[in-house]
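Handout for the seminar on molecular recognition.
Each group receives one record of this type.
Step one: identify the two inputs.
Step two: read the structure output and locate the region that could contact uridine-diphosphate-N-acetylglucosamine.
Step three: write two sentences on what you found, then compare them with the reference statements printed after the record.
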Amino acid sequence: MKKIMCVFGTRPEAIKMAPVVKAIEQNEHLQSIVTVTAQHREMLDQVLQLFGITPDYDLNLMKKNQTLTDITAGVLHGLEEILQKEQPDLVLVHGDTTTTFAATLAAFYQQIPVGHVEAGLRSGNLYSPYPEEANRKLTGVMAALHFSPTPEARNNLLRESADDEKIFVTGNTVIDALLTTVHAHYQFADAALQQLLDSPGKKVLITAHRRENQGAPMMHIFQAVRRLHETLPEVQFIFPIHKNPKVRELAAQILGDLERVHIIEPLDYEPFANAMSKVDLILTDSGGLQEEAPALGKPVLVLRDTTERPEAVTAGTVELVGTDEELIYQTALKLLTDADAYGKMANAVNPYGDGKACGRITAAIEYYFGIRDQRPENWV
Ligand code: UD1
Ligand code: UDP
C-alpha cells in the first residue's frame, strides 16, 4: 500500500479534494491520510461534515484577520513533525491557496514528492489573483506530478518547460463533487431560503472575497449591486457572505439596509450548489464558481480583471467584467432585462470536466508508483 497524504485548508480545497480523498479510500493499493491546516475553520468544517471526512491531523491554524505570513509559517511548522512521523509516499495538494504552497514547501523540505491537483491554471499576472497566481506557480515548480484540469492548463505548464510525462489531464474534481451534490428535486432545510428561491421574479447570487478586491474595488462592486436593486424592483439578490470580517464590514455598510439584498451566512456546499442551479445570474470573484456555474447553465459575471479559467469565457457563459461599477451595473442590467442577451449566455457547457477526474488521478498515482502499467489517457 502506498501512503497518500492529502493536505488542504480552505473551503474550496476541501470541496475539490473531498472526492479525491474518497477515491483514495476506495483504492485497494492506496492508504489515505488527511491533514487539514484549518486555514479556514467553520467554512472547512461544513465541507468535512458533508462528505464524512474525519482528518487524521488538524493544525487548527485560523486566526481572525490572519496574514499570509501567519498562514505560511503556521503550515510549515505544523507539517514538519507530521510529515517526519508519517513519511507519506506522496503528498497531494490542491490549487492555489497559501496552504497549497506552504504544504508543498513543507513536503519538499522532507524530500517527499507532491502531486498538484488543479495544476497549470495561469492568469499571467502575478498580482491578480493575489497571492494565488504566485502560489500555484511556486507549487508547480516543486511538484512531481501535475493533475491539470484542462488541456489549456497542460499547455500552460508545457510553456513553462514542465515535463509532459508528469502531466495528466484529468478534468476538474469540482465537477465530480458537483454531480453528486446537485439534484433536480432538492429540498432546502432552510424554509426561508426555499421560499426565496421559489418566489416569483429573478434571482441574482453574489459572492465576493478576493484579497485584491478588498477596499475600493469591492466598494464599486457593492455600489453596482445597490444600483441594480434600485432599478429592478422585482429582483432578489442572495449574498451568502464570506466569513472574512473585512468583506462583512463593507457589505453591511453599502448593502445592509436594502430589502431585497439578502446577506446570509455562508451556505453549506449542498444547499449552495443547489441554490446556484436555481438562480438566474451569478456575480462573483470566486474561482470555483466559474467552473460550477457553466456546468449548471448559469451565466456568470466575473468581478475580476483577469481569470485563470478562460475556457468558459470562450464558451460564452462567463464574462469578465472587472470591478468597474458602471460596467457591472450595465452588463447585469442587460442580462436581467434582455431575454436574447440572456439566452446567448445561459448554455450548459462542461469545459472543466466530466465527473471522472478522481478516477484519473488515482490511476495516474498507480502508474507513477508502477502499480499499473498503462498510463491513463488525458481527458479532452
Ligand atoms: C482564502 C485563500 C483564497 C481562496 C479563499 C476561499 C489564501 C491566501 N487565500 O482566502 O485563495 O480563494 O480562501 O474562500 O490562501 N474566516 C473565518 N472563518 C472561516 C474562514 C475565514 O472567520 O471559516 C475569516 C478569518 O477572520 C480569516 C479571514 O476570514 O482570518 C480570511 O481568511 P483567509 O484564509 O486568510 O483568506 P480568504 O479570503 O478566505
Ligand atoms: N460555496 C459554498 N458556500 C457558499 C459559497 C460558496 O459552499 O456560501 C462553494 C462554491 O460552490 C465553490 C466554493 O465554495 O465550490 C468556492 O469557494 P470560494 O469562493 O470561497 O473560493 P475560490 O473558489 O474563489 O477559491
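Reference statements: The chain has a mean pLDDT of 97. The pocket of uridine-5'-diphosphate (ligand 2) is lined by residues 11-12, 15, 207, 209, 240, 266-267, 269, 272-273, 286-289, 292 (CB under 6 Å).
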